[in-house]
Structure formats: C-alpha cells, structure tokens
Write the structure tokens for this entry.
Amino acid sequence: MVTKDREYWLHIKDKVKNEADALGIDKIGFAAADPFTEMKQLLLDHRAKGYESGFEEPDIERRVHPELSLEEPRSIIAIAVAYPSELADAPRNAPGAFRGLISRSSWGRDYHHVLRDRLARLADFIRSLEPDARIESMVDTGALVDRAVAQRAGIGWSAKNCAIITPEFGSWVYLGEMITSLPLPPDTPIADECGDCTICLDACPTGALVGAGGELDATRCLSFITQTKGMVESEEVRFKLGNKLYGCDTCQTVCPKNKGKNWTHQPELTPDPELAKPLLKPLLTMSNREFKERFGDMAASWRGKKPIQRNAIIALANFKDKSAVPELSELLANDPRPEIRGTSAWALGKIGGEAARQSVAKALMNERDEIVLRELRIANERFA
C-alpha cells in the first residue's frame, strides 16, 4: 500500500502538471485552500464605494471561503490559457462601411466553454489517479476571485490594470480554477513587477483604475459599460466608447509587459476577423436568430444583441456616418426599445444633415417616452 506522504502528493502534482500541458493548458499552479482573509475587507470596501459591476458573486463570504464551495478543501489548482492579441488580416474601416471592435477576450470560441472543457478533462484525469477526489471547477462566474487564486498559485502577479500578468504570456490569459480535496503541495507566488509604472492608469479612458491601481471602479470601466443594458447616460462616455462594441483592451495594450506578446497556438481561440471587427450597419437590423447564428459562439454574445446594437449606434455617431441615417431613422421611428430609440436620436443629432433633422422632428411629434424625448430635444437643438 502506498503511503500518501508529501512525496506521494508531489508525484501526483507532477502527473497533473504533465496532463494539463497535454490538454492545452498553458500554465498551471497550485495553492492552499485556506480562506482569502486578506480579501474580505478589500471586497467590503469595494462594495461600499459602489465600484462593483453587479456581475460578481453577491455573497462576499463565498468569495473569501473556498469551503463554502467544496466541503473540506485541501488545495486549489489554478490554470491559465493564453489567447491572441493581434488580428491577422484585419478588415479596415471605409466610408459607408465602418466597423466596430470586439475585445480580444471574446475572439474565437467563448473561453468559458474552452476552459470548462479542459478543466473537466483535467478533473477526470485527477479522479483516474484518486477516485475519491472531490473537485469543484470554476471559470469567471465562480464564487472565488480568479485573480486572488491565480496570484496565490503563482500563475502571475495581480497588476495595477486589475489583470493577472504572467511572466510568459503577459496578461493575455484566461483564468480558471478547481478546488480539490487533495493535499497537493502549493507553489510560490510571483513577485509584483509593476513597480512605479503607471502607464495603464494614465491611459484608461475614463479613469476607472482607481487609487494606486489594482482596484477597478466597474461603473466607469468602458468594458463594463459596453455590457450594460439601457442608455449610456453620459455623452462624454459615448464619445470615449469610440467604436467599441464589447470590452476595452486599453489597459492591456499599453502595458509594457505585453509588448510583442501574441499567442496563436490555441486553434479554438483563433479569431474570425469579420467577427472581431464586424461591420456596424448590419448590426442595426439583425434579428435575434441572426445574432445568435453569427455571434453565438463568442463570449461577447452573453448579454444578447441589445447592448451591442446600442454600441453600434454610438459608434456610427462617432464616425459621423451619414450613410447610416436611413437605418437610424427607421430605428428611431419604429424600434420598441426606448434605449435604442434614444441612442438613435442622439446619433442622428450628432451626424447631422437634413434627413436626420426631419427624422428627429417627426419623432418629436410622436414619441411618448421621457428618456427618448430628452434625447430628441437635445438632438433637435443641434440642428438649430
């Protein structure tokens, strides 16, 4: 009978690392499953400041205590999978054929599915070694804080841009983890290498990276705003969105640790240029079925077509694309969603021209929604 001492678990750990590599997991780390007590006050303060996105696990205790997700946990396995940062043969904008931007984190197949599949296969392998192992896997939407787990497990350091930066892959990595009942020996955390650099803080379009960095005011983050529903209330934010349809990569693209790093070895994450930079005008009239058929395999589809359509309207306004006036006028007159009508009113006012003016004037006579009426009045003033 094998004595399950530290040497035994080191041997199991090595087998798990080798299998992870064979499964296409780019980096793996191991951490103790102790509570993340140092996180609790930070999370409470974050909530008190109103910085949460609303997409997080609402129970802070579950975010801090692994034992609330798996009874008697002994270790946590963290994984990272690298993804591309550059788009080969990127289609270009042209008058009448302007394009939007989908962030790199949504290129290729939805990473939630990719990582969950690899974690599931890794869990099956672990159970082949230890049939009694209990495992709870998580990707993005789990209770634990992915960055805290990855940092403890030595995947990388938690950077000022609120990403995990790995020495090998920069911050172009997706993160996942599994809590286990096995006492796998932990790895050593990596020292923070951000130093005095504030490039990401200075580059953030809305100042969403707050304090000295490492904390994000999600309500000001363009990535979060692109995923919200309803109106984008601030005109300044609408300008700063530019042609972003989903996500924002600014704090990563400016990071010196990401310079020259582009990962193309994961076939499932290879982007389709026409999906990564889609034409804007077709998005305005796309049905739910068409949206799902075209974008349904991407992470960007998780909130449905409405936020992306709204963002496409904002992008067309920022391009001042006069060729979009007929489509925007149709949305203003007939779309049942107030946020789409209101955003279209703003866009027509910004694009300008006689056709846009007439559409706004006609809508002013028929519109009943107060939010849309407000946007119509502002748009109408632009024509004065």
